[in-house]
């Protein structure tokens, strides 16, 4: 007959805390823990319910219920005449159920190659801490206003069934209607609400476009430098990626066609090249569209921050040149907040079903409550007013930052550009941007180095600096800190 352990051999029981409540659950957890750690061996008999109840000061019913629970889980078994014991069936499994702290592997567990690639991506996409000059931190004057708060409360309080069920994977119709109208007016985009698919932001739009448009072995074109979130997606696919340098007119279209005329798709940021900032010239836009028509290729236009142009009106979209060849991506991250995780794509008629299918596969659609809020914010006129307001605040902050850098760090060469939420400042030759970014981090400022956004063939050294989310005083103070950081490197050079 299996022996009964004495209570002191089950240390997990000592962890039961009568002041914390849920005593039955605590007992179940403690016994399960004792079994998994081997304090109660397979086949070992448990103390009787009466003994356990008396010793622990619990009711006998609580102990019986705990035993029943563990019997149902298959951890214990009751045998007539021999009480309750640890289930024999656990015998072969015990080494596997031991908590990992007791079974430390002697060598690292090999993980799939794809898992290693995703881990490497994390380093590139981790957000910067919320300190100047991080990008997209809409606080204070540029945060969503009182109207947003009121609409949010109204909609959240309405308890409408539309907020609780599964919704259309392409997104809420009223939001798609508002976006279509906004894009037609402000971005010269040619679209109907049916062409719009709501996404979790432009990042997801890039991912969906790559999944829908590209197959194994396809050739694909992208800018150099480019948004790391895009390059990581393309590098993860089994495609031939060609990086094409940008110059003062943006993406070098002639070079791209020379390198890979039969590319299936090209990913570009025509309004505001990421990260450098120049727009793609009209002649290059027209050549690119002509190429796409001729070779049956697709243009993915990432229009991530074009609303924020400070000199004149935003540039019209490329999509307006050919709505059947261009997949247009927009986002609410820059003009409202990245935390919303909402954006949109405008897709050609021929691809509507494909993109909605892919969107359904990738998460069944976006949360509907925030979609209702944005739809109301747009249709009631607050969105346009918000953009006008932030454009003016950002425009001032941008001027302040450029002025502060000219004063504190004249060795930096600020790239001429007139839109977006960041500037690019080039470092003097021989100074490594990654080292500066790290030293800046230690000094409490957040900048991104440009070199990791370039292909191995391109050697650029500069800093990407956001100005949107910080007051003029914060920007000036951070520029003074940056001066000190740069000084360490200038002295060392
Ligand atoms: C060029 C570019 N594309 C896409 C994104 C993704 O934006 P989100 O997914 O927040 O809309 C970003 C974010 O910074 C970006 O800079």
Automatic annotation (TrEMBL):
GO terms for molecular function: transaminase activity. Keywords: Aminotransferase, DNA-binding, Pyridoxal phosphate, Transcription, Transcription regulation, Transferase. SMART domains: HTH_GNTR. It comes from the Bacteria. Residues 21-89 form the HTH gntR-type domain. It holds the Pfam family GntR. PROSITE patterns: HTH_GNTR. The keyword Transcription regulation applies. Gene3D superfamilies: Type I PLP-dependent aspartate aminotransferase-like (Major domain), Winged helix-like DNA-binding domain superfamily/Winged helix DNA-binding domain. In the C-terminal section; belongs to the class-I pyridoxal-phosphate-dependent aminotransferase family. PANTHER family: HTH-TYPE TRANSCRIPTIONAL REGULATORY PROTEIN GABR. This is PLP-dependent aminotransferase family protein.
């Amino acid at each position: 007959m299996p022996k009964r352990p004495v209570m002191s051999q089950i240390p997990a029981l000592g962890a039961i805390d009568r002041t914390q409540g849920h005593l039955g659950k605590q007992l179940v957890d403690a016994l399960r823990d004792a079994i998994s750690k081997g304090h109660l061996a397979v086949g070992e008999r448990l103390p009787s319910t009466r003994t356990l109840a008396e010793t622990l000061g619990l009711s006998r019913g609580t102990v019986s219920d705990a035993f029943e629970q563990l019997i149902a889980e298959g951890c214990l078994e009751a045998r007539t005449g021999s009480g309750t014991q640890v289930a024999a069936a656990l015998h072969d499994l015990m080494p596997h159920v031991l908590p990992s702290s007791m079974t430390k592997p002697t060598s690292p567990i090999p993980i799939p190659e794809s898992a290693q690639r995703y881990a490497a991506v994390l380093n590139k996409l981790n957000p910067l801490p919320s300190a100047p000059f991080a990008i997209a931190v809409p606080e204070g004057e540029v945060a969503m206003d009182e109207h947003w708060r009121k609409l949010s409360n109204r909609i959240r309080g309405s308890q409408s069934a539309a907020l609780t069920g599964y919704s259309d994977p392409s997104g809420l119709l009223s939001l798609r209607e508002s976006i279509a109208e906004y894009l037609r007016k402000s971005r010269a985009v040619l679209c109907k609400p049916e062409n719009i698919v709501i996404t979790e932001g432009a990042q997801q739009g890039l991912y969906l476009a790559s999944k829908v448009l590209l197959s194994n072995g396809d050739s694909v074109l992208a800018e150099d430098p480019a948004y790391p979130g895009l390059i990581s997606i393309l590098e993860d696919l089994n495609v031939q990626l060609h990086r094409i340098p940008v110059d003062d007119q943006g993406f070098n279209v002639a070079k791209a066609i020379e390198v890979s005329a039969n590319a299936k798709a090209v990913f570009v940021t025509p309004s505001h090249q990421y990260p450098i900032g120049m727009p793609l010239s009209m002649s290059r836009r027209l050549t690119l569209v002509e190429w796409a028509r001729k070779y049956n290729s697709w243009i993915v236009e990432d229009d991530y921050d074009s609303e924020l142009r400070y000199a004149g009106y935003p540039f019209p979209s490329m999509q307006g040149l050919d709505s059947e060849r261009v997949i247009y991506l927009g986002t609410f991250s820059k003009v409202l907040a990245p935390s919303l995780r909402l954006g949109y794509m405008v897709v050609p008629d021929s691809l509507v079903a494909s993109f909605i299918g892919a969107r359904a596969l990738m998460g069944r659609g976006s949360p509907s409550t925030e979609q209702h809020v944005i739809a109301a914010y747009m249709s009631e006129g607050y969105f346009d007013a918000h953009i006008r307001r932030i454009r003016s605040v950002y425009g001032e902050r941008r001027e302040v930052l450029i002025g502060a850098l000219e004063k504190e760090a004249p060795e930096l060469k600020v790239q001429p550009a007139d839109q977006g939420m960041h500037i690019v400042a080039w470092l003097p030759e021989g100074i490594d941007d990654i080292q500066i970014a790290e030293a800046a981090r230690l000094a409490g400022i957040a900048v991104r180095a440009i070199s990791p956004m370039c292909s191995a063939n391109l050697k650029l050294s500069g800093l990407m600096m956001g100005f949107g989310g910080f007051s003029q005083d914060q920007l000036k103070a951070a520029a003074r800190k940056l001066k000190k950081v740069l000084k360490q490197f200038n002295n060392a050079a």
